[in-house]
Amino acid sequence: MLSHLVVGQGLYYGDSIFYAVCFLLLMWIIKVLAWKPVTKMMQDRADKISNDIDSAEKSRNDAAELVQKRQAALASSRSEAQTIVNDAKANGQQQREQIVTQAQADVQTLKQNAQKDIEQERQDALSNARNDVADLSIEIASKIIQRELKADDQKALIDSYIEGLGKQHES
Amino acid sequence: MNDGPVSTFQFLGLTFSTANVVSGLVVFLLVVAVIFFTSRNLAMKPTKGQNFLEWLIDFTNGILKGSIPAKEVGGFGLYGFTLFLFLFLSNQLGLFIQLATSGGATIVRSPTSDPIVTLTFSLMTLMLAQFAGVRKLGYKTHFANYMKPFVFWLPISIFEEFTNFLTLGLRIFGVIFSGEMLLKLIWELAISHGIATMVVAVPIEMIWQGFSAFLGAIQAFVFVTLSSVYISQKLEVEE
After folding, report:
1. Could you give the ipTM of this predicted complex?
2. Residue A1 at interface with chain B, using a CB cutoff of 8 Å
3. Is residue A34 very low, low, confident or very high in pLDDT (cuts 50, 70, 90)?
4. First to last CA, chain B
5. Among the four residues A10, A88, A89, A152, which has the most C-beta atoms within 10 Å?
6. Looking at the domain assignment, is residue B1 inside a domain?
7. Which residues between 7 and 26 in chain A have a beta carbon less than 8 angstroms from any beta carbon of chain B?
8. Contacts of B15 in chain A (CB under 8 A)
């Protein structure tokens, strides 16, 4: 039974060589068939996972940055809107005051003009009436005294008379 | 088992045992088949076969990493993987299939139940360890290690190499050989007195078969572990 262990009798050295060759061949076959592709795949997977982790980290940072940017933009646009509204209000106020001032000035001018016109009309009417009265008075007087009076000679007299009349009326 | 008549043949002036050659070829083909069918359609997202293969590779790499520094494992990964797969299937083969010729000579059994096979693997491991040591440390440092901690240690170091060679090979041989031997004895008991002994012996046979399968796995694991220990010893300068 243990004859194998007796050196030189039952140890088949051929088997030893056969197994060594078999094993080396097997190692080569496994290397080509499985070892290289599988370890490469495992390495690829490890790389991919670590890449994924890195890129996830990166995109998270990007997202955080984006949020910050957006908030900043929001705040700035809010303040901008506030400024615009304030400007518009100030402009409106200014314009209103301007318009009101303009209107007041216009009204003042119109009123002055109107008063001036009225005064003018009155003066005109008064002077017309004075002339008419002068002519009439001369005509009447010439008819009465039957003599041709030279209008221009008497005019100063009549004017002073009418002046006196006007003063009597006004008082 | 080798207690019956042994069938041998001559080739190139060397004697071959038919049982070893045939069983070795069977295991060889089994390993190739396992590797071939699990390594089809490799993908980034592993499927069944690939999962198994990757688990196995991680497992043997884990054994090696137990004693060899992680950055040196790469070169020995393939060796450990092939060794484990070959020894594991060798250990299991004889538990399930045992064939003999009509003359009684065994043709198929566990290759590892023959010391010449296990000693071949043992020698291979120790040669690889020497080679790795020389490649990493250089001849001078490598052989200087035999004279550490002092010069008179040299005979002990050489003797240690020899005992490593024997114990590594004979441990697995002893376990597998005795397992198969006991299986055969229990079977002889089972058929010795008809149905009565059969009823008693068959459950024992099954239990022992299960235990042997467990032992076979353990021995393959132990062999790879010790191989990595012997290799790692040669990779470092002794203090």
Report:
1. 0.78
2. yes
3. confident
4. 45
5. A10
6. no
7. 10-20, 22-23, 25-26
8. 12-14
